[in-house]
Amino acid sequence: MAANTEKSSSLSEADEASADACPTVSQLRSLLDNRQTSSTNRVDEVWPNLYLGDLNTANNRYELWKLGITHVLNAAHGRRYSEDNPDFYGTSITYHAKVLVHCVVGISRSASLVLAYLMIHHQLSVVQAICTVQKNRRISPNAGFLRQLLSLDEELRQTRQNHSRPEMRNHGEERRSEQKET
């Protein structure tokens, strides 16, 4: 019986790749806890030109210079993300800048901001975003941030479904028209 409980509370590899999976906070926590990432660095590149790090790195001008960091986004205080933040570094990355997103330790608040960015601007599900970031850095967003990310995931999923439906209907109507003409 315990084996069944473990299976239902964690995500399988197939679920991780699926944008349609609707995980729970406990499933995301399990995914985060079960991922083995060797990185214990103060800063890591988690997406091209997008770095996740800690406060010490953000305050070290020499380290920023060595990495080629051109923009620093401080997530140490305030909300996990806002509508302005993802646009800020989406724009910066477009112009070939290197962006460091940091909080005090670089594993919860700033990680949540980076996950939201990947979900919004690269159409990743929350699970895909977590798996992508964890390939390069250990992260551990708190339960409150995970709930907010799940809410964002659901909102983005619904928006994408709503945008794809009219196209599907139009495509279906075009095919029916073509069949009638022949």
TrEMBL record:
Domain Tyrosine specific protein phosphatases span(s) in chain numbering: 98-137
Catalytic activity field: O-phospho-L-seryl-[protein] + H2O = L-seryl-[protein] + phosphate; O-phospho-L-tyrosyl-[protein] + H2O = L-tyrosyl-[protein] + phosphate; O-phospho-L-threonyl-[protein] + H2O = L-threonyl-[protein] + phosphate
Catalytic site positions: 103 (phosphocysteine intermediate)
EC number: 3.1.3.16, 3.1.3.48
Record keywords, A-Z: Hydrolase, Protein phosphatase
GO molecular function annotations of the record: MAP kinase phosphatase activity; protein serine/threonine phosphatase activity; protein tyrosine phosphatase activity; protein tyrosine/serine/threonine phosphatase activity
InterPro entries: Atypical_DUSP_subfamA, Dual-sp_phosphatase_cat-dom, Prot-tyrosine_phosphatase-like, Tyr_Pase_AS, Tyr_Pase_dom, TYR_PHOSPHATASE_DUAL_dom
SMART domains tied to this protein: DSPc
Disordered: annotated span: 158-182
Recorded GO CC terms: cytoplasm
Enzyme class: hydrolase
Entry-linked Gene3D superfamilies: Protein tyrosine phosphatase superfamily (3.90.190.10)
GO BP terms in the entry: negative regulation of MAPK cascade
UniProt record similarity statement: Belongs to the protein-tyrosine phosphatase family. Non-receptor class dual specificity subfamily.
PANTHER family to which the protein is assigned, alphabetical: AGAP008228-PA (PTHR45682), DUAL SPECIFICITY PROTEIN PHOSPHATASE (PTHR45682:SF3)
Primary role: Dual specificity phosphatase able to dephosphorylate phosphotyrosine, phosphoserine and phosphothreonine residues, with a preference for phosphotyrosine as a substrate.
Protein known as: Dual specificity protein phosphatase
Species of provenance: Engystomops pustulosus
